[in-house]
Write a structure and sequence with these properties.
5-stranded mixed beta sheet, Glutaredoxin, 9 strands, about 180 residues, 4 helices, two-stranded antiparallel sheet, alpha/beta
């Protein structure tokens, strides 16, 4: 389990369109929103990433980078990037053991989805994380299903509050209860 205020695992993955996303090398002054998505087969993911893509300039204005991450192949990541209404970095090839290290749930294929795309044999379910520039976890949400995800507009409002009030990450206590 990841712990707020403690380092997250590093990520170093290829990007659709070329280059590499490396979390520990991110230069955004307030950190990075890391949005793990299920893959090209998921129509909800395409809509969700589209929302993040549209709001990426708002995050950037607050000193926060954004990236979508999946275990998809490069070809599938390129196809997902092409579906988005605005630019968003799409990292791919996430090893499932790394997905587990982030606390993501892993699902098995159910075949072809409602949009006619085959699910991979295994893939991770969604997760949304706000990671500080020191790679410390600030916010995290993981899901067992593709439905009912955190809203990026609410994350922006929370980020504004946290910046204004210098609000610390919560949930950091790991002692006896």
């Amino acid at each position: 389990m990841l712990t707020p205020r403690k380092p997250t695992p590093d990520l170093s993955l290829p990007l659709a369109g070329g280059g590499t996303f490396t979390l520990s090398a991110e230069a955004s002054p307030r950190g990075t929103v890391v949005c793990f998505y299920r893959g090209l087969h998921c129509p909800i993911c395409a809509t969700y990433l589209g929302e993040l893509a549209k709001l990426t300039p708002e995050f950037a204005a607050r000193g926060v980078g954004t990236v979508g991450v999946s275990s998809d192949t490069g070809e599938r990541a390129e196809a997902m990037a092409a579906k988005l209404p605005a630019p968003l970095r799409i990292a791919y090839g996430l090893p499932l053991r790394e997905a587990r290290a982030w606390g993501l749930y892993i699902s098995t294929s159910r075949g072809v989805t409602s949009i006619g795309v085959e699910e991979p044999a295994l893939f991770s379910e969604p997760g949304l994380f706000m990671v500080g520039p020191d790679r410390a976890l600030y916010y995290g949400a993981v899901q067992t299903m593709p439905f009912v995800r955190p809203h990026f507009s609410e994350l922006l409002k929370a980020l504004d509050f946290a910046i204004e009030k210098n609000y610390p990450a919560r949930g950091e206590y790991v002692g006896a209860v």
